[in-house]
Amino acid sequence: MVTRLTTTNHSRDIAGLKYVYPVLSRRAGGLSIGINFNINNACNWRCIYCQVPDLKIGAAPDLDFQLLEDELRFFLDDVLNGDFYQRFEVDEDKRIIKDIAISGNGEPTSLKDFDKAVALIGRVATEAGVLPQSNFVLITNGSLVHRPSVQNGLKKLKEYGGEVWFKLDSATEEGRALMNNAGQSCQASVDNLLLCAKLCPTKLQTCLLDYDKQGLSPKEKGAFLDLLRRIKTKGCLLKRVMLYTIARPSLQPESDRLESLPVETLNAFADEIRLLGFDVLVSY
């Protein structure tokens, strides 16, 4: 029995493939083709809003490049020439490939041959006629940008017209420890962000939520705005700042303590960021 594809169903195995999965993205406004390197549910961070089941600390396992290529070719052909949209009951206005997104169940740049994987995906999608019409996106926490293979992958992503969505949920050490359980300092993240933006067009992706009914504190807002001012003075050209709040339940122990932020809070913060000269997109 085929499951209807909706914006709330982000199952990685809905298409029955190992690395490739479809998502109806509320942010992209259509079909997003996800690539999951982290089939072992391993990540070097543990974000408290993460929806990955049985998440563990670790890196992506070795990649079966031939299988990835075979799956991607098969899936693109099914979407472009088969009855994919009909089988999954996708609404007419969503029947468009908006992007190919390297994301999945952990930090994708932890893959050993990350640059080679980016090149493979770019080549196959271009041959299928999906790129450059659709976007090519890497969704990352940015913690491994200092690695040569990751930098080479970012350069390759740029060659295919792609962009990076760089996660930055908090600009305070306390906030990062709470939200992401990240062992990396805020300054190290900023350094990687600056490097990332030089190598490939980059957007900042920020999840804002209500933890223990504390809302979005003045301290967090102030630190985030100060960080944006700092990177701007260093010549960092972000394509956009993307703010969003949680839409689905977390599968982490903190789940019961998390709530989405009101639309009014997101919009007000977005206006403050726009005053600094940044383009801002708010998603609910």
From TrEMBL:
Protein name: Wyosine [tRNA(Phe)-imidazoG37] synthetase (Radical SAM superfamily)
Pfam family membership, one: Radical_SAM
GO MF terms held by the record: catalytic activity; iron-sulfur cluster binding; metal ion binding
Ranges of residues in domain Radical SAM core: 38-208
InterPro entries recorded: Aldolase_TIM, rSAM, rSAM_sf
Lineage: Bacteria, Pseudomonadati, Pseudomonadota, Gammaproteobacteria, Methylococcales
Source domain of life: Bacteria
Organism, scientific name: Methylobacter tundripaludum
Keyword Metal-binding: yes
Listed transmembrane segments: none
Keywords: Iron, Iron-sulfur, Metal-binding, S-adenosyl-L-methionine
Cofactor annotation: [4Fe-4S] cluster
